[in-house]
Design goal:
1 helix
Length: about 90
């Protein structure tokens, strides 16, 4: 390990690897916090359902992990779609 520092560019490579390790650790901490928040939201949703007297669950599914990106372009409206009714 001591000899790797003698190679050209090795210091910047090691610095980059150490930075990556720190960032991955930080990301793992954040994800653990997200799991806890998800559990708390689920518990609150069940409590709201009980207090409102609703039968059945309105619980949302957990978020799916995705590697693909979503397109943010708006879909054009079709001319055959009915216009929303206004309750004037």
């Amino acid at each position: 390990m001591g000899r790797i520092n003698e190679l050209p560019g090795a210091k910047s490579l090691l610095d980059g690897v150490n930075t990556l390790r720190e960032r991955v650790d930080e990301l793992q901490k954040r994800m653990r916090g997200l799991d806890e928040l998800t559990r708390r939201v689920d518990a609150l949703e069940r409590r709201v359902d009980q207090l409102s007297g609703k039968k059945g669950s309105t619980r949302r599914g957990t978020a799916r992990k995705s590697t693909s990106s979503r397109s943010s372009a708006a879909k054009p409206k079709s001319s055959t779609e009915a216009a929303p009714e206004r309750g004037d």
